[in-house]
Structures are given as structure tokens and as C-alpha cells.
Amino acid sequence: MTKLAVITGGNSGIGEACAWRFAREGYEVIVCGRRREQNIALCERILDAGGRAYGYEVDLRDPQALGDFFRRVAADHSSVNCLVNSIGIEGSPFTLTEDYSDAVFEDVMATNVRAPWLCMKAVLPQMRALGAGSIVNVASLAGLRASVTGGSVYSASKHALVGMSRAAAREYAPYGIRINAVCPAFVRTPLSQDILGGRLDDVGSSHPLNRICEAEEVASAVYWLSSQEASFITGIAMPVDGGTQA
């Protein structure tokens, strides 16, 4: 039976790389995000390559829209076997805490913390009924240490996502559900490009491996954590950081 993977924020960057990886591994992939045209374009490319992918336009910051989305998924597809929460925003990079906007703070928390939490709440009952499932939350190295670019608010959101992943992993381990987080350092994505511009590759030299991380390398870690090869691993926050934590 074909397994189903839902990739939030799946139309760009790490999420897009995850969608491709799961599709190549034979999963039926659902890509969801706010950008309808990007969702459709990605799914068409995956279909052209022989995979199975479906795009849904949904603002995951909106609890009602998120609930409607998962009800549609349940009606149109099989139960969710894997959830990858790749949704995330940087907020206001290089901004001092005292200068940070309350409105941007709320948006970062709604996107980086509440949306993944609501997505987990939506799929966990299905996974519990199946007696199996995997959730991987895409956090950041800023969930393990201070952010270089995103400041205190981005760091707070990613620390929260790591903590939520660990706590939920303990709760749901008895049901055969594994929940983990990945914590990348600087990754070559459109978001990083917008923040760092032409300095992106130079920043990669701060990693001991002396280069920038590619989105596909994070997707490999996400897929591995979701696979049976990681069947005894739950509750971890895996650095994908080129040796930075060392």
C-alpha cells in the first residue's frame, strides 16, 4: 500500500526538497502552502517525473483553514503516515529585541510554532489509530543555540519547536509514533538568499565543512528519520550543521 506524506511549506526550499525525496521513495505526497501557483507547478514537475503529488492552497496560520485542509486530506486520501513540518519564516532578521515589532513576533510564533502544533494535533489521532507514524519538524540550529541572523524571536520559536517535538515524542512513543526534529545551519534556500544575498556562500565558510548546506541534504536527514532505518529513534533534535555544534 502506498504511504502518504504531508509536507507543509512544501513548495520551496527544504520543503520542496523533502517533497521530491519522499516522491522518489514511492510516497504519495501532499504539498501545502499559501502559494497556489508554486504548489501546482511543483506537483506537476513531480508528476512528470513519475511521482504522485497533490497541491493544496492553505494558510496554516489559520486554525479553521488548517482544520478544513486536513479534513479534505482524510476524505480524498488514505491516512497520513508521515508529516514533515517545513513551514517557517525568519521574521525580522538582524533586529534587536528592543526594536522588534509585536506584530512580527505574533506572525513568527503563529507560523513557526502554532501551525506545526496544529498540524501535529490533526494527524496524531490518525497515526494513533494506525499504531504507527512519523513526524519530523524542521527546526534550526537556532533551536539549539542563539540565532546569528534571526534574533531572539526566531530563536525562541525554534527552541519551542524542538521542545514541543521532544515532549510529544515521549507522549506518543507508546503508540508507535516517532517524532523528531532536524536543526539545519545555513542552507541554500530562497529564504536564506533573501536574507544574506551574495554573502550566502561566504557564510558557509563558518561551518567546519567549509561550505553551505544544500536543501537536499536536509531532506535526506528528514527522510532517514521517517524511515524504518531510524525505527528506534524518537525525540531527538538532529543537527544538520556541517560540524558547527562540534
TrEMBL record:
InterPro entries: NAD(P)-bd_dom_sf (IPR036291), Sc_DH/Rdtase_CS (IPR020904), SDR (IPR050259), SDR_fam (IPR002347). Pfam families: adh_short_C2. Transmembrane segments: none annotated. One of its GO terms (biological process) is monocarboxylic acid metabolic process. It comes from the Bacteria. Belongs to the short-chain dehydrogenases/reductases (SDR) family. This is SDR family oxidoreductase. It comes from Pseudomonas marvdashtae.
